[in-house]
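Problem: given the chain below (276 residues), write out its structure.
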Amino acid sequence: SDLYDALTMSRSANVLGHSGDEQQFTALAADIRSAFNEQYFDDATNTYDDATQTALSIPLLLGMVPDGKEDAVLDSLVNDVVELNNTHLTTGLIGVKYLVDALTAKGRHDLVWQLVNQTGFPSWSDLLKDGRTTFPENWNGEGSINHIVMGSVDAWFYKELAGIQIDPEHPGYERVVIKPFIPDDLTRAAASVDTIRGVVASSWVKDGESLVLDVTIPVNSDGLVYVPSSGGSITEGGKVVWDGNAMKVAPGIVSASNVGDSVVFEVGSGTYSFKS
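Solution.
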């Protein structure tokens, strides 16, 4: 959107040290946001335009929702997906990415996972019925029969299931963030990305009541590794590196701290095997 473009220009100007341009584009972004909400936002119903999943997802993801209304708009989106459409998406090829990314950004990984595994029309499973190996352009199978746009959810597997993410403050994989989403009904996931600095890899396996998370951080990069934890000890390479309350000194591990339901380890380049 124009708002996203203006905010991107503002951030770029900040990085380049052009304070005047930064202020100009920040003000422009605020004006665009205000005008957009005046035209399309319904304060009474907490919806946008015709209240479709796409109409709700794009403002949520791009930061266009009025302050204090984000949770209400998210509730409208979740209600549309779950209650009105029986946990099915109704987006087209433009909106599907925004729906997945908006729900993820607002912490509803669980709902994206349900959509990923959904069957029946419309769903990714339905698109691949009858032995298809490529996605068609439309949910009903019409149009191009090799249309990658519907496959934008693939990125979610890398970024969320395997947890391979970048740090916007340290781009180009200078700092790698490994933060996997662990569904209750999935036992393992693995992915790797061949970056300009080398291969970044993340894989996890449930082992009874434990979780093993293997991570590779390439040379000239460092990493933040989120290891899900229920409060007990965590080992790396078989040695205790977190005793439930504090970090134990270990090669390659710079620091560790509790963040939500995870312990976050700051690590240097190398290969690590965490078990929690």
